[in-house]
Amino acid sequence: MPNDSFYFSIVRDPATLAESAFAYYRAVAPAFRRAPSLASFAASPGRFYQPGLRGNHYARNLLWFDFGLPPVAPGDRQAVAEAVAEVERAFAMVLLAEHFDESLVLLREALCWPEEAVASFPHNGRPRGAVPRLSPGQLARLRAWNALDWALYGHLNRSFWRRAAAFGPARMAAEVARLRRRREALARRCFRGGGPLPGPAIADGRLRPFQPARGGAAILGYALKAGLEAGEREACARMATPELQYKDILDRRQFGGGNGSAG
Fold first, then answer.
1. The 3-state secondary structure of 95-131, one letter per residue
2. Cβ atoms of residues 157 and 96 within 8 Å
3. Secondary structure (H, E, C), the chain
4. What is the Cα 261 distance to its own chain's centre?
5. What is the enclosing helix (H) or strand (E) of 10?
6. pTM of the entire structure?
7. Which of 210, 220, 192 has its CA nearest to residue 246?
8. The pLDDT of residue 129 is above 90
9. For position 79, what pLDDT does the model report?
10. Diameter of the chain by CA atoms?
11. Tens of pLDDT, residues 158-199
């Protein structure tokens, strides 16, 4: 990549990430399969976890794994600090999943993008009421279990809010409000029902999100309105396409085998 390439990534609170991973990856992570419930896993993760088993990277320090950081002991403060510093050197910006709209505002400013460049919709969500509320004790235990992720997240969280403070609270509030109004208008224009639907209700396989095994809650996705003109349908489909299908589109565009169209 060119020397002036702008790399960015995203992080999430390790406790809520662990809950999400338990729901989404339970079929492929032995540590999650062995636990009879999320509450059991959160109470004593070490009972169910065996390092080195295929798929168990989902069950501990998933952020650390995804960033490709070296395995270090959580108590080795110098090694942890060096790894975290390497992430900050490699990435010009790291977004926060919990504050995604604020993240998009800062990303747009950093890259001098127009507003339409960050018009987007959340993917891989679950219906309201399907996401368990973690108790303070569960939050604390899951953060302790994912101690490397917690150290990384805490550092990057502080960096994010320093950038947000420099941007300005009033300016941020106005930009976020404008972004949300734009998203709501696009949803009304593009999607059947004006918002997300359970995956099984989406007939078009190109837009239906992956549904985890083992009886988890249906992952939400989007179905396009009927009667959209070709150009509008293409634009709406690109925003509605789940990440697995979108990766296939990018693969075809990069390596051939299709026209790269999402519609």
1. EEHHHHHHHHHHHHHHHCCCHHHHCCCCCCCCCCCCC
2. yes
3. CCCCCCCEEEECCHHHHHHHHHHHCCCCCHHHHHCCCHHHHHHCHHHCCCCCCCCHHHHCCHHHHHCCCCCCCCCCHHHHHHHHHHHHHHCCEEEEHHHHHHHHHHHHHHHCCCHHHHCCCCCCCCCCCCCCCCCHHHHHHHHHHCHHHHHHHHHHHHHHHHHHHHHCHHHHHHHHHHHHHHHHHHHHHHEHHHCCEEHHHCCCCCCCCCCCCCCCCCCEECCECCCCCHHHHHHHHHHHCCHHHHHHHHHHHHHCCCCCCCC
4. 24
5. strand 8-11
6. 0.91
7. 210
8. no
9. 98
10. 59
11. 999 999 999 999 999 999 999 999 999 999 999 999 999 999
Is the Cβ–Cβ distance between 197 and 127 less than 8 Å? no
Beta strands in 177-244 (DSSP E): 197-198, 220-221
Q: Given this model, what pLDDT does residue 173 score? A: 98
pLDDT on residue 148 = 98
pLDDT tens for residues 50-92? 999 999 999 999 999 999 999 999 999 999 999 999 999 999 9
The structure tokens 């919990």 sit at: 98
Q: For the chain, give the percent of residues with pLDDT over 70.
A: 96
Give the pLDDT confidence of 207-263 residue by residue, as tens digits.
999 998 765 678 999 999 999 999 999 999 999 999 999 999 999 999 986 555 555
**What's the burial of 196, exposed, middle or buried (CB within 10 Å: 0-12/13-18/19+)?**
buried
Q: Read off the tokens for 44.
A: 């004593």
Structure tokens belonging to residue 213: 């095994």
